[in-house]
Amino acid sequence: MHTAAGIARTSAELRAILSQAQPARPLVSAIADLAGLADGRGSGVSLQVLRAARAHLAALGNIPQTTYTLYREFQRNGERRGYETPYFAKRDNLGAAALSVLLGDRSSLDHVHDYLNDICEETTWVIPACEPQTLDLFNAGTAFLLAETLAVLDGVLADEVKRRVTDEIERRVNAVYLEGHEGFWWYKGANNWNGVCNGAVGATFLLLEQDIRRLAEALEVVLAGLEVFFSTAFEVEGSSTEGAAYWQYGLSNVIPFAELLRYRTAGAIDILGTPRLRQIARYPLRVMLSPGRYASYSDCDEQVSFAPGLVARLAERTGVTELLGLLAEPAPLALSPGHTTPPWRHIAWWDGKRPERVHLGDEWLQDAGVVRLVGTTPSPAPVVLVAKAGHNAENHNHNDVGTFILHIDGETFLTDPGRGLYSRSYFSPTRYENLFCSSFGHSLPVIGGQLQAAGAAYRGEIVACDLAGPTKRLVMSIGGAYPVPELRSLTRTLTLGPDGQFDCEDRPDLQSPLEVEEAFVTWLEVTVSGAIAKLTGQRHVVELSIAEPAGARFHLEVLEEASRANAKPALLKRLSFRVPAGSPSARVQARLIA
Predict the structure, then answer these.
(1) CB 226 within 8 A of CB 218
(2) Calpha distance 424→18 (Å, rounded)
(3) CA 19 to centroid of chain Cα atoms
(4) What is the DSSP string of 362-415?
(5) What is the mean pLDDT for each group of 10 consecutive residues in the chain (594 residues)?
(6) Which residues contact 205 (CB under 8 A, 6 or more apart)?
(7) Integer angstrom CA distances of residue 84 from 53, 146, 564
(8) What per-residue confidence (pLDDT) applies to 29?
(9) Residues 6+ apart with CB under 8 A from 270
(10) Angle at 402 between CA 397 and CA 404, to 5 degrees
(11) How far apart are CA 381 and CA 283, in angstroms?
């Protein structure tokens, strides 16, 4: 049973609250302390953000072109990048220009006007991949960005531009939402779309709508949708099956909406102060591998850059202060990581500090079927093992029941390769032909020539997790993920020893003998000699050895075509070996040798 947030309100209740609570300062103060920015508060953060915005500011004179031809590339060949690249660059450039004006540089004001007008000239704010929807993630996000730009630059922008922007937001988003929300699949959906869209629309209404009756009607709809989001898009204990990146994206508009609503209702509705949000806030640290790197199951990349403003505000308002550990990443500040937040929110909500270190401990996310085991090598180097059971119909699903990641001293030696290239076919019935969604592209066995199958019926279970003592042990039952009638069960046991040695043992129970192929995937350079494979990272070398069955030999396959087709910067390698029919088990050991 999922946990409710308890945030839903009727329009009558909302009208009463809104009528009684009138904020003394402009509403945008809830998401950007304009007085604080003007008097130099957080000037060090301002400099960091301006450095991150430098490339966008330098490019302001050439507005990226979102042409009809680029828009129709997706229809012709399924390609998304041609149109989406200038689409997002245009919005990032607008944010940079608005920030520059906000910090006192009026020379960028003409650019702000030009970008606002150009975005209003776009035929649609819906991206091609989301047709024929009339309101999608980026349509809603564009409306919020434009409404917030009007708010933070109130009194500076030309009236005719403000009227044009307001009219377009009403026509493309607000009216469409009020009239048709029940027809949108995402409105009460169980994934990030719900939070992104409802949060953006709710914030846009709060910033622009002057009629309290209409605002209350809109907020009733938004809160009903978000109640479902908090209850179903996250597991019982607050975990996300979509991974850390989509955890951030799903909350990216919810956090500022929640703050706008809290401010506008004088604290009567405080979403971030609920116990449910405290549960959800804890999730990403529980799947961290090392600063800046996270478990990359589903469509999540391993490297995730978090928006400091969002993280800092969520940590402060939920009281989950350890969440600030997400900012201990080695990468420089990104202006808008994953298009999650305008730059002024970093200055308003973040003090510019990053933790020097983060303590990682063992974690068992029973609701999501994910375990993290932490150890050290004699050197000592930190060793992190993350494994998942789950099922094969999760949000942004990959067929990956039983997969694991072995991460040593900040480097991943055995990987979950993360998402493939987003395209039309990637989100189609042929999705699992993509190696990155298929169990073939994960450290998982092939049973009798069969890969794992997609669907909620194909699942695994963590049957034991021993975190006590010097040797930590995880046992998963993963046979249910395979459409193999002869397979009664398949038990995978992962062990992390006191010296950081890793052991993976698979024991199939078959009604009749079938050949099993064991496989392990990595991005690193690999050399193979019989039953020994060496994985060479930047700082260390890990040796894999086949302990069982006797006589087995590694085979190395470089998955070059799939890696290049999915725009990966490196080549994925697959180490496999055959387990003869009738063999009781297969076991591989890994240890740091240099």
Answers:
(1) no
(2) 44
(3) 37
(4) -EEETTTTEEEEEEE-SS--EEEEEEE--EETSTT--S-TT-EEEEETTEEEE-
(5) 79 96 77 58 76 92 96 94 95 94 92 98 96 95 96 93 98 98 97 97 96 97 98 95 95 96 95 97 97 95 93 96 92 75 88 91 95 94 96 96 97 97 95 97 98 98 93 97 97 95 97 96 98 97 97 98 96 97 94 92
(6) 174, 215, 218, 219, 222
(7) 19, 18, 20
(8) 76
(9) 258, 262
(10) 95
(11) 25
pLDDT value, residue 1: 41
State the residue for tokens 């009236």: 159
Task: Give the C-alpha distances (Å, rounded to integers) separating 232 from 221, 273, 467.
Answer: 17, 19, 29
Distance CA(312)–CA(265), nearest Å, equals 22
Dist. CA 419–CA 14, nearest whole Å: 41
Query: Which ranges of 209-273 would DSSP assign to H, the alpha helix?
Result: 212-232, 244-251, 254-264
Q: How far apart are the first and last CA of the chain?
A: 47
CB 289 within 8 A of CB 409: no
Are 218 and 201 within 8 A, CB to CB?
yes
Q: How many CA atoms lie within 13 A of 111 on its CB side?
A: 25
Put residue 42 in one of left, alpha, beta given phi > 0 → left and psi -120 to 50 → alpha.
Answer: left
Q: How far is CA 391 from CA 101, 414, 461, 478, 492, in A?
A: 49, 21, 9, 9, 15
**For residues 452 and 482, is the Cβ–Cβ distance under 8 A?**
yes
* Eight-state DSSP code of residue 574: E
Largest Cα–Cα distance of the chain, in whole Å? 79
Q: Measured between alpha carbons, how far is 296 from 403 in angstroms, rounded to an integer?
A: 10
How many Cα atoms occupy the beta-carbon half-sphere of 295 within 13 Å? 31
Give the pair of three-digit tokens for residue 163: 């009227």
Which two three-digit tokens encode residue 49? 């953000």
141-159 as b/e: b if 16+ CB within 10 A: bbbbbbbbbbbbbeeebee
pTM of the model: 0.95
Does residue 342 contact residue 145 with C-beta atoms inside 8 Å?
yes
List, in sequence order, every beta strand (DSSP E) within 87-205: none
Looking at residue 329, its pLDDT comes to 79
Please state the length of the chain: 594
Alpha carbon distance 152, 174 (integer Å): 20
Pairing mode of beta strands 502-510, 411-414: unpaired
Tell me if the bond preceding 380 is cis, omega within 30° of 0: yes
Coil/strand/helix, residue 306: coil
Which among 143, 43, 144 has a CA at the least distance from the CA of 103? 43
Cα–Cα nearest to 149, from 202, 105, 93, 67: 93
- To which residue do tokens 């190395």 refer? 556
Nearest 5°: CA angle at 359, between 297 and 233?
A: 35
Residue 541 and residue 592 in contact, taking contact as beta carbons nearer than 8 Å: yes
Q: What is the DSSP letter of 352?
A: S
Instruction: Please report the pLDDT score of residue 41 as a whole number.
Output: 45
